[in-house]
Amino acid sequence: MRRDLVERARGGNRDAFTTLAADSIGRLFNIAQCMLRNRDLADDAVQETLVLAWRDLPGLRDLDGFDAWLHRVLVRCVYREANRERRRSACGLGSPVGVHGRGPARPRLGQKAHPPPYSPPPRRPAS
Length: 127
Known about the structure:
By secondary structure, the chain is mainly alpha-helical. It has a single domain (2-98), classed as Rna Polymerase Sigma Factor, Chain: A (Orthogonal Bundle), CATH 1.10.1740.10. It is 59% helix and 0% strand. It contains four helices and no strands. The chain has helices at 2-10, 14-36, 39-56, 66-90. Helix 1 (2-10) packs across helix 2 (14-36), helix 2 (14-36) runs antiparallel to helix 3 and helix 2 crosses helix 4 (66-90). The longest helix has 25 residues, at 66-90. It is rod-shaped and about 85 Å long.
């Protein structure tokens, strides 16, 4: 059954691909969220994965390896999303309180926590 869905999706059948995507989306999201530790970034990575999977599916040679292939596509998209977020943070484009205002930004795996930037106390007017 699964092989038949993959074969039909590879031939351009949108309904077959929709079924495959619906069967895989929960697993893909869980993996992406565990890797990125951020729901919004995980959503973006899964969306990009499904777009690339639809585009590249005609080139899939081993129909039985669809799940492993989709997992590899997801991991590449997760790395790409993590790099984008790292560049946004380095350029100061990220939110200072975390992504979309969801509390303080947590350091990612392998990154050191940095204290907030120092700002001197306000000057008092001379009396």
